[in-house]
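Tokens help. Consider this.
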Amino acid sequence: MMAAEYEVREATPGDAAEVYALACELAGAVGDAPPEEEAVRGRLGELLRETGARVFVAEVGGEVAGVVSLWIKPDLAHGDAVVEVPMLAVSEDHRRNGVGKLLMSRVREVAAEHDASLIELVATRSNVAARDFYKSLGFVEADVVSLEFVGDVENPPEET
């Protein structure tokens, strides 16, 4: 199939099962545990109601082939906006058909609509396919985060 055959639209609550399946594929690709279906369903509903978030799906013949979620974040330090893309996933059956590129085109449109100066993407070092894909679209790896700090909410690090 060609990218022209795919349609990008706003996600709906009815897409939850397909978004969950894509989230599971993504988790498997990066070595994470699969998410809980109800958690994905609940978060999708929250994002669809959130004015600073957008979720788009690409579909062909009524089948969801890919999903992208984004946050439009006001950037106080620079006085503009940044668009963050925490999730982009394309079904294995639809990869290399232009679906990811089509979804990222929609992200770029949203960024332009909000006068965003940057689009931030996250890919683990081990996810070479994602890193190569983003580079093919003209994104560059920025070595601006020297160390990422994470803490477990359930079991936070102890203060010293």
